């Protein structure tokens, strides 16, 4: 203690006089002052009453702030309070001038709220809009947060830590929750300088009333082996000291950290998180990974209202419902691609090209490595080593805001392989993140993959649908030899469609024998359309008997297309009786187009009434638009009145 009793009493008298003068200047009553300063009436009356105890520094600071005193006047009042309490001279604690700044002056990105959206979307919105946040969707945990904020605004100190996986919207939820406090002059303090461990501990005793303490990723504060327990103890003291409140402590934690802190140790085991566990008990709130139906509907409303970020995210997240992860992860994934080392960029570009040209989700590592060769410059290729490749894949598999790009896909032992992949790819397979797939589709649409890409696809890919898609892509880019080889590879892996495509190409080239051989292979594998092509070829070769047999085989297999095709060929050959019989068989089996052939045959036979009836029947049997075209073809007006050209 310092100063004698008279000096202390004089300082206290002067303190009360200045408070009285400031109160008179505002015109407030002491009850009103207590309410606005979030202090009890007893505490405020004690501060003004002669003979009362010396008020705490936090109370003096709260009263001075509510009375609108300047920073210098606050310092003078605090110096008088210290003298009245007999405390030794030292730095004056001007809480709300020292820690944090008004909430309205913070940029949410400086509080570690993730930027949102892909760079393509952000660029289209302009430089200023890139700093904007997407619209916010309120969920169940937001209501609990709002209750805590209301209690803090009403004068009760509160703490809430949001627990969940990466990028589930925890930090954004905290930011949205504190916005109402800005209107009441609350400040926000984000302790991070010089480090998260060193920043809070020395200053927690200086936190002013009406301050939000922002502990994003609270494991950096509470989980430290040396000071985590001390920080927890200081926070507990702050929250339970009525004279220092109200304050609001908001934090976020990944689930694994929360589980670690809350776990009880064994009987003989050390308890490294005892105080942290007591602090968090009753003060955690779980944030779900995915949006529920109500949240998805609200997000759709935002998207329909012009929120480009939300609309972009919903194009990918409508099935897995991890909307916040999509919003947060896209920028970082694309940044990793743009600034990655050459092997990383090359592997990602291979994956992007493969996905945009029709390859499925699972990309074999061997394919990615071999295909990347021509994506590297000569110098980069010369520096490529096994260690650098391993490092590249390690970087790609590292989580980004809860995502991976690409991520390894593994199936448990005994699980069936995908139905479209008769021979699973050897070695690990990867999956490109949806964000990068979309980014690659937009930025690389005019790029034709180099030879190493097509060679690696031919060598390593085994899914026939993937090979067919790449064959088509190669053909569209005039890589005709690769298109041919990829189709053969697809056919060799079991694609009947690829066999038919190869047969059609042989047919166009005039190689009828080669085409027929391939069509027969497809037909033997069960493709009925191949039978129809064989019917046409046999008919064109004058083999009516062979054509009939194939048509019947096709009909027995459940298709009427071959019967109809044969009927058209018989009609063209002048054999109308056979054509009529074949068309009738097809029509009886439900082929509406065969009815059109029958109508044509009846018309040419002079039976106009039957022709009209058959044409109308064709129009009533499915595919109405096309059948209406057939009506007009046979001279029927849209209103149904017959105007046959042959009448």
From TrEMBL:
InterPro entries: Cro/C1-type_HTH, Lambda_DNA-bd_dom_sf, TPR-like_helical_dom_sf
Residue ranges occupied by any HTH cro/C1-type domain in the UniProt entry: 11-74
Region Disordered: start-end pairs: 400-427
Biased composition regions of type Pro residues, renumbered to the chain: 411-421
Stretches of the chain forming a coiled coil according to its record: none
UniProt xrefs under CDD domains: HTH_XRE
Domain of life: Bacteria
Name of the protein in question: Helix-turn-helix transcriptional regulator
Species of the source: Streptomyces musisoli
């Amino acid at each position: 203690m310092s100063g004698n009793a008279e000096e202390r009493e004089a300082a206290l008298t002067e303190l009360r006089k200045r408070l009285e003068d400031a109160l008179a200047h505002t015109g407030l009553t002491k009850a009103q002052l207590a309410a606005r300063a979030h202090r009890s009436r007893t505490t405020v009356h004690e501060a003004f009453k002669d003979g009362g105890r010396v008020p705490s520094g936090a109370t003096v600071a709260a009263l001075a702030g509510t009375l609108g005193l300047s920073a210098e006047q606050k310092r003078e009042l605090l110096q008088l309070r210290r003298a009245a309490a007999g405390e030794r001279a030292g730095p004056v604690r001007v809480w709300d001038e020292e820690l944090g700044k008004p909430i309205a002056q913070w940029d949410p990105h400086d509080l570690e709220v993730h930027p949102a959206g892909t760079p393509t979307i952000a660029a289209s919105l302009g430089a200023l809009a890139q700093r904007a946040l997407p619209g916010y969707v309120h969920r169940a945990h937001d209501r609990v947060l709002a209750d805590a904020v209301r209690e803090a605004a009403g004068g009760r100190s509160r703490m809430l830590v949001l627990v969940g996986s990466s990028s589930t919207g925890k930090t954004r939820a905290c930011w949205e929750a504190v916005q109402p406090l800005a209107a009441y002059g609350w400040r926000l303090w984000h302790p991070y300088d010089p480090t998260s461990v060193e920043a809070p501990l020395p200053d927690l005793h200086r936190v002013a009333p009406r301050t939000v303490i922002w502990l994003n990723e609270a494991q950096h504060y509470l989980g430290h082996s040396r000071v985590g327990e001390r920080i927890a103890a200081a926070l507990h003291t702050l929250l339970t000291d009525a004279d220092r409140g109200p304050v609001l402590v908001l934090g976020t934690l990944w689930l694994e950290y929360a589980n670690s802190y809350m776990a009880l140790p064994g009987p003989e085991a050390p308890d490294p998180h005892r105080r942290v566990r007591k602090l968090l008990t009753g003060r955690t709130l779980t944030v779900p990974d995915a949006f529920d139906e109500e949240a998805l509907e609200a997000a759709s409303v935002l998207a329909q209202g012009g929120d480009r970020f939300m609309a972009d995210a919903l194009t990918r997240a409508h099935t897995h419902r991890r909307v916040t992860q999509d919003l947060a992860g896209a920028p970082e994934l694309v940044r990793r691609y743009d600034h990655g080392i050459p092997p990383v960029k090359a592997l990602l570009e291979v994956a992007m090209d493969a996905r945009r040209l029709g390859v499925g989700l699972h990309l074999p590592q061997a394919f990615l490595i071999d295909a990347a060769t021509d994506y590297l410059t000569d110098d980069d290729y010369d520096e490529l080593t096994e260690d650098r490749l391993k490092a590249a894949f390690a970087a790609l598999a590292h989580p980004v805001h809860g995502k991976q790009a690409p991520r390894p896909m593994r199936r448990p032992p005994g699980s069936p392989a995908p139905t479209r992949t008769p021979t699973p790819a050897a070695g690990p397979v990867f999956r490109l993140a949806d964000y990068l797939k979309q980014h690659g589709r937009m930025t690389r649409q005019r790029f034709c993959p180099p030879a190493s890409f097509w060679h690696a696809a031919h060598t390593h890919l085994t899914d026939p649908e993937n090979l067919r898609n790449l064959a088509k892509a190669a053909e569209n880019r005039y890589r005709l030899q690769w298109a041919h080889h990829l189709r053969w590879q697809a056919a060799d892996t079991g694609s009947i469609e690829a066999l038919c495509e190869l047969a059609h190409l042989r047919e166009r080239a005039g190689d009828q024998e080669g085409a027929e051989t391939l069509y027969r292979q497809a037909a033997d594998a069960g493709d009925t359309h191949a039978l129809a092509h064989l019917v046409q070829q046999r008919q064109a070769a004058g083999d009516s008997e062979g054509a009939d047999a194939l048509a019947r085989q096709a009909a027995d297999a459940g298709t009427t297309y071959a019967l109809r095709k044969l009927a058209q060929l018989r009609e063209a050959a002048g054999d109308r009786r056979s054509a009529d019989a074949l068309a009738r068989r097809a029509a009886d089996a439900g082929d509406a187009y065969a009815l059109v052939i029958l109508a044509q045959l009846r018309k040419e036979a002079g039976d106009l009434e039957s022709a009209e009836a058959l044409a109308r029947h064709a129009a009533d049997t499915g595919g109405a638009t096309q059948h209406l075209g057939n009506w007009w073809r046979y001279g029927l007006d849209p209103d149904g009145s017959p105007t046959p050209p042959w009448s």
